[in-house]
Amino acid sequence: EATGLSDRHILYYSEAANLLGFISDTGSVTSIGQQMILASDEVKLSITAKCFENSHCGWTWIMWSEVENLSQINPDTARRFLDECAPTLSESTKERRARTLRTWCHSLQAYYKNWG
After folding, report:
1. What residues are paired with 23 via a beta bridge?
2. 3-class secondary structure, 29
3. Which pTM value belongs to this model?
4. What DSSP assignment string belongs to 4-28?
């Protein structure tokens, strides 16, 4: 109630937090989630970039793109990536998820740091 978000949006954000490793499957905050809570805004974005890169989705996109890391992905390939790697999604779902992936990629690439 305090956020003003619908239950549906809260579920989306919770799933994203789980995908990125900020919360566990049971909803408890992970150690990387604790680091996010304590970090400055810029560090939060750097952590998020690395967590997205290391997620199943992010790493699959990197491998599909035949690049080495998140900074090298072309965000405009999001829809083709989903067409090839998630063919069972409906067209409307693919378009929404492609838009999210493009947005995440555009936003996070500026904060990506190759930590070795």
Report:
1. 29
2. strand
3. 0.88
4. ---HHHHHHHHHHHHHTTSB-TTS-
